[in-house]
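Hey, quick one: can you model this chain's 3D structure?
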Amino acid sequence: MALRKLKPVTAGTRHRLAPVFDDVTESTPEKSLVVTLKKSGGRNNDGRMTMRYIGGGHKQKLRVIDFKRNKFGVPAVVKSIEYDPSRTARIAKLYYADGAKTYIVAPQGIKVGQTLVSGDNVAPEVGNALPLAKIPVGTIVHNVEVKPGQGASIARSAGSFVQLVAREDVYATLKMPSGEMRNVLVNCMATVGAVSNAEHMNESVGKAGRTRWRGRRPRTRPVAMNPVDHPMGGGEGRASGGHPRSRNGLLSKGKKTRHPKKYSDGLIIARRKK
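Sure thing. Here's the predicted structure for all 274 residues.
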């Protein structure tokens, strides 16, 4: 997976760093594994706008991803690597030996025709899913569960991974992508390897219109608003706006917003680097 620099034919391609889709082997998704993705435009069920700067965007189909990998002991063959418009990573289509089909988040280095399996007593190879209790210490993993059987919620975006650094009693210690160290129960599932499409972080969209294609509308700066619209609005000339704060008056840029008694605080060993 690499990026290509476009020739500066237009202003939009001058600084464009576009992805190369040479790792994608199939362009049409599996019909049984997609559902309709309805756009809300930021409106709730009363039709009132509750989230600003959402609207437009290209029509998409949502690929149903298997984050649980709970078909233990059933081998699956990788049939294709596909593009998913609603996530940064590539996805892989699996055909199980019992006839089932699923999508998973594609690990880095996975190939079409490769056989993957999940369970307690499988080899810790790239793409295989197994409990943290069975993975060797020092291994890089992704798609990690926080609660057993809940489905993966840690390290799912392009290029991300966590490292299993220690294991003691019922807890495994993970080093998160942010640098945070935290404990997770050893019977939580994880997939060996890092997530595909690691070059995603270096992409450059090139023009504002490409952001509109993704369903994001232009965001108005608070200091450009009137006092009735935002606490930082108003003033004579180009006023800086005073202390940075949100639209409803909460201080930002430094004020801690995490709940002081969050349930997972006891599982965090070391906070992320600031």
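One thing worth noting: The CA atoms of residues 41 and 175 lie 37 Å apart.
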